[in-house]
Amino acid sequence: MKRPDFGLSTFSGVFMVWTLFSVLIVFSYPLEGDRDAPELRFVEEFDRLKLGFSWHNMSCSVCKAIFASVDIALLSDSNKERVAHVLGDACVRLHLADPDVCREITDLFREDFIRALQESFLWPTEACALLVGPTCGHFDIYAPWNVSLPRVPKPPIKPPSPPKPGSPQSRILFLTDIHWDAEYAEGSLVDCKKPLCCRNDSGRVSWKQSGAGYWGTYGKCDLPLRTVENLLQTLAKSGPWDWVYWTGDIPAHNVWSQTRKQQLNELTVITRLILKHLGPNITVYPSVGNHESTPVNSFPPPFVHGNGSSRWLYDTMAKEWASWLPEEALETIRRGGFYTVEVQRGLRLVSLNMNFCARENYWLMVNSTDPANQLQWLIHTLQESENKGEKVHIIGHIPPGLCLSSWSWNYYHIVNRYESTITGQFFGHTHVDEFQMFYDEETMTRPLSVAFIAPSVTTYVNLNPGYRVYYVDGNYPGSSRMVLDHETFILNLTLANKRSSKPYPSPSWTSLYRASEAYGLSTLFPADMDGLIKIMVNDDRVFQRFWYLFHKGHVSKPCTDTCKTSLICLLHSGRYDILIQCDVLHGDKHSFRKTMC
Q1: How far does the chain reach from its first CA to its final CA, in angstroms?
Q2: What is the number of helices (H) and of strands (E) in the chain?
Q3: Range with the poorest average pLDDT among 120-124, 277-281, 357-361, 399-403
Q4: Which helix H or strand E contains 91, and what residues bound it?
Q5: N or C: which end of the chain has fewer CB within 10 A?
Q6: How far apart are alpha carbons 281 and 242 in whole angstroms?
């Protein structure tokens, strides 16, 4: 099954071109009197072969041969300049992206990527596993690595029980993947040549086409600020909220043209709008998305200092989030973008920086072993909570099943050890409505935890805007603090954009579904979600309902046969080495999306 495709990452394509031209520089120099520069001959050779760039065209053996020469090529400053000079033209000639995108992304990524590559100890098999896929090698540079668990016996397992009728519940607002596009333009071209459309530079529509809608558009488009603010105005009236989880990705998908100043402005604007509309009495607990940085996915671990570090981002986050978080949390945000805080007596929150597990974070080529010691810190935090009898919720942006293999394996191991303490996991990033299961490591059959993955606020790609509300066992002695139910709300763009004249009426955000009603569940405990998967295997009506809701009520075709089998496999897979088997089993080695989410 091909999961929702957010497109081949332009950066991923440029990443490979860096390697191609690095080899070119080493082995091909212009002869005296030769009128054609070797790099242009190289590009023309690609054109002659009519090689449309994709991972399917790059064989494993060719990739390894190319990457074996990269470090040599980039030792010289003059080589780096030559590579940069021709890269933009090559990107255009190889049809990796629109010409403007090619040239801008080359300039944006050059310094950070080359520095990370020079400092890495990346072997060809590891590099090509990253670029081509797991069939070409194993990408986890110092794999396997293990965190250290304390020598404290795991408490006896007590299956959770539903709360008594009338027990308090906590109502938690969950926001993720806002992706505000400051350049969104009503009436602009929806189907443009760039990775992101519906913008001032996307072009205007012809009389035969429909342009970008006022409130948003189905397609490769993010949201105008007015839609984000309308959502926040709606949420202010839809309370009360006990608290808010907000798992990042504020900027739009124009990853080729972003600056630090723009990223910080968007972080500041959205943070202050949330504070303005929800008010000072509602605490918001944020986490860091992969789009907060520029270049996108670039999150150097703390051993990188100076201007190349992430301090420019983390310091601003600490400043803007200071009204919600205590100083102890702000200190660890400044160091590594993660933190812990007591939400209520008996309930602790851990906010993880999932960029330290991300396959697209090229800084992990330098060292992917527990970046920033975040997992070891997590273990320490969980052990302290276990000692105190606290329950813990974990939030983050990228779901753990999509992480690097060793990171994902260790995280899964931690969840197994602290299954009685971790009572909720909440993520975003994929833009769709799904979940990942965790099972006991001994038999892989007993469900013990669920990573809930909520749908995005943005429309990217071809979705309705949406948000999630979680209903959690509430604040009373003996509470499980587990998820009892959740409800998803959407803005139906088809209805919202039907208008006749200005001023446009405020649109209606409506409930798409409530999990308990849609699936006939009394709670959303791990055993319930595992049972739901089993029902979907045997009852296609339930599965097709899930597929419809998976896309926030805007899906073009049903999911059957291999699509269904693979999706069900993915729901079982809270660990990367398990998740990858979903593709291997069905013979699709390229189906893992290299996302721009």
Answers
A1: 19
A2: 20, 12
A3: 120-124
A4: helix 77-93
A5: N
A6: 10
